[in-house]
What does this fold into?
Amino acid sequence: MGLHMGSRKKTVIIIEWFAILALIITAVAAGIHLKGRTEEAGNMISYEGSRLVLYEGPKSLKDATAEDLVSAGEKERNFALLHCTDTKVKVDGYDCYVYDTNVNHSRAWYPNYMPPQSRTPVTYFDFEGTAKIEVSVPDRAFNSVKISPVSYGIKPEVDKAAKTVTFTITRPDNYTLTFNDSPERALHIFANAIESEAPVKSSDTIKYIGPGEWNIENIVLEDNQTLYLAGGAVVHGIVNASFAKNIKVEGRGILDGSGFEGWMGKTAYIPLKFDNCDGVTLKDIIVLNPNAWVCSAKSSTNGVIDGIRIISSRPNGDGITLQSCANYKVSNCFVRSWDDSLVVKNYEGSSSCISFQNMQLWTDFAQSMEIGYETNKGQQAGVSVSDISFKDITVLNNFHKPVISVHNADDAVIKDVAFQNITVENAQMGSGDGEEMPYLIDLNIPKTSNWTSTKERGQIDGVTIENVKVLSGKFSPSRIQGFDGTHKIKNITISNLEILGEKITSLDQGKFETDPDTTENITMK
It folds into this structure.
């Protein structure tokens, strides 16, 4: 059962009860095992005037109460994805469904894997042209509001008495509203372009999941299959594939892991996991409440990750992690993580030709962009990490450890790495227990490490860091330190670095901690 919104006039389509049976039959025919289907599917609305598509959330989701918003461990309160009730969003005058998902404002590691969890509102819609957004927070007083990315220069109309914020957007992207310069209850708005030629039903190669709330523990994809999550769908479960080729996961729906207990160092239910695959495309879906890592690929090639949105809050909640992969393009994504946001490592063989571009990151814990530490976990001969780039990255917040890091705790060679056009809106490195690595930039071959697999060390050779700007927060130090005179960090170029309005032209001015015995040819300009 699918809905094609091609009408030229205002159209409201409500999926009736007879359509639910069709949805179930379609899913079963596609080979999807349904453990449960709750209540009716949602409404989808298309307004021709502004080319706007809104997606009604499942009616079965519980309304969030004050008790649900209390910061507490996941076993101490309701951890499920909820319908948000204290933040209202209208788009072009029409109500937009808002979810309440879990986030984590603690900046320290919890050995029991049970840090306190908070909540934040999330909404999404599709549009073309312009969209006027009105946000109402009737229960909250605020003195200021920031709309990120700040580079867009959006100046909202603010009515403090009515507790509303109104602004207009002209391009599909991810927008975040922060009130009173606090991360508490920040609103994430995921504004998509309108889809064209989206699937409307299942077929031999397409697994289609329509609007509504679905309990599907595990969806396994095989060669040449596409999983499509329609707008308004919330799927409680995970998606994975091994030794598969030419597979896709796409759509406007939500993949939610709140039903899985936190992994506790034992069992990780990774929402998007693809090992030994070739030709994986992930596009546009939203992933919330994973029980550990979020989007992972190992020993895979020729991947595309485009426009997915991730919010994690539990330990080891790394955003996008690529291990021993080659030829991956990651772009246009939003990652808010409670562990490293973007990661490249070697678990088996080498990593090469991986690019991250036009990304928005909010790193609640750990690091925003990291290579390493594990660069030869498989203990193979002659491995390397090469041709890796991070370009046009906006870091909304970095609260804990470095923004930019290249770490080599094994014997691989790391070479040809570029960080270009990086904007940090709020730098708070060193918060919580992040004081051990409170750096803006950290290039390091450590003497000892919890993540070392080989006795020997390798090198870091050829890193370009260009056009990095820190807009607010701390003037944090940076570090460039190798292992010894043989295992060095060398051929490093840093140019156009600006911290809190100050152009940095020397290592001393930038508070760089360097070791002349283990580094070579560091250029600052």
